[in-house]
């Protein structure tokens, strides 16, 4: 008899919340958000990225000026120590989440893989 | 101190594999696949759906003939007891998986929600 699915899911939520990777991310996220200048710089960077992604998806043309503007915003955040640490922490956590998903979805992957 | 993240993920994988929802889905999936006629009908239905989705996403025009063809394939699988049971089981499991994801991703949702 296995543990109840949702009980185990709540345990995983707790383990994720208490993991070093999540705690580092949260700390950096709070630090960046507590710094008005860093917070605005990061928000601006995100908005530029999002805007370019939406244009790409809808097949809209992206001007040279927009590309230059985006490159400058990337350079700005890369030079900001806290923001670049935050982005690295986000990258690490998204890899952890992808691994967790891969583990959990194994039963379905095995089933559909045999089609 | 919380349990290791990956150990808990493997427990969740086990709990999903042993859940009634997954076991029902697997049983129906195997039954449909063991029945050559049902298996072909279902595969044909899937291919038609996938083809329409791809056309929709790429903005390609969908002809009236294609719509009629798709509707007929939907009616065929709906009238097939095993296939319609399989599709209902897939629907149920995808709701379970969505709930699990919602639980596990809560720490991230809380963090980014506070932006
Ligand atoms: Ca802010
Ligand atoms: Ca088959």
UniProtKB/TrEMBL annotation, chains A, B:
<comment type="similarity">
    <text>Belongs to the UPF0342 family.</text>
</comment>
<protein>
    <recommendedName>
        <fullName>UPF0342 protein K9V48_01290</fullName>
    </recommendedName>
</protein>
<dbReference type="InterPro" id="IPR010368">
    <property type="entry name" value="Com_YlbF"/>
</dbReference>
<dbReference type="InterPro" id="IPR023378">
    <property type="entry name" value="YheA/YmcA-like_dom_sf"/>
</dbReference>
<dbReference type="Pfam" id="PF06133">
    <property type="entry name" value="Com_YlbF"/>
</dbReference>
């Amino acid at each position: 008899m296995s543990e109840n699915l949702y009980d185990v899911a709540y345990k995983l939520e707790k383990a994720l919340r208490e993991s070093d990777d999540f705690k580092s991310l949260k700390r950096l996220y709070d630090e960046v958000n507590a710094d008005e200048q860093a917070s605005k710089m990061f928000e601006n960077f995100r908005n530029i990225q999002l805007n370019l992604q939406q244009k790409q998806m809808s097949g809209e043309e992206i001007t040279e000026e927009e590309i230059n503007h985006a490159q400058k915003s990337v350079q700005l955040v890369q030079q900001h120590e806290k923001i670049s640490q935050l982005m690295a922490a986000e990258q690490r956590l998204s890899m952890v989440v992808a691994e967790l998903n891969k583990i959990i979805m194994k039963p379905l992957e095995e089933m559909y893989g045999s089609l």
